[in-house]
Amino acid sequence: MDKSLEIIKDKIENIGSAIMYSVPDTVLKLPTQIVNTLCIDELGHLWFLVPRPVQHVALFDRIFPVKLSYFKKGINTSLSINGLGEMILDPEVINTVTCIDDELREKARDKYMLVRIKIEGVEMFEPTARKNNVWAAVSNFFMETLFPFHNPSRGVVEYKIAG
C-alpha cells in the first residue's frame, strides 16, 4: 500500500465517521448524511452503508461525485476527501467485498445500500508548530488583530492518490 494511503487510512480509522455530500447535478441525489466507514480496501476504496432511498434506485446515477468531511471533537486532524461514489447493488458484487461481514452484506441487500468511494483527492488539516521567535510573535499578533479568523496554528497537507 502507498505510504500516503497508509497515513490517510490511519487518520480515517481514528476518526471513523464523516459527513457525505453527494454533489451531482441531477434532481435525484443521495441526501447529505453522516456515514460510518466500514473499511478501506487495499486499492484505497472507502466502503459505507447508506439507507436505501425511497425512490426507485434505478432513477439515480450509479456513479456520482462525492465529498467527505472527516472530523471529530478532541482530534486535531480533519480530512476533506473528494472522490467518485458508486452504488453497489448487484448481490454478486456485494458477496465479493472481503472487508465486510455477512451481517453487513445482508443489510446491503435489504434496507441499506453499499457505496464504494474511489478517493481522488485529500486535504488533511493538522496543527503546525509555531515558531518561537520575536518576529513570528509580532507577525501573528498583527495577523490576528487585522484578520480575526486567521489561524496560523493550522496547516493544510494535500495528498494526491495515484490510480
UniProtKB/TrEMBL annotation:
Domain of life: Bacteria
Protein name: General stress protein FMN-binding split barrel domain-containing protein
Organism from which the protein derives: Pinibacter aurantiacus
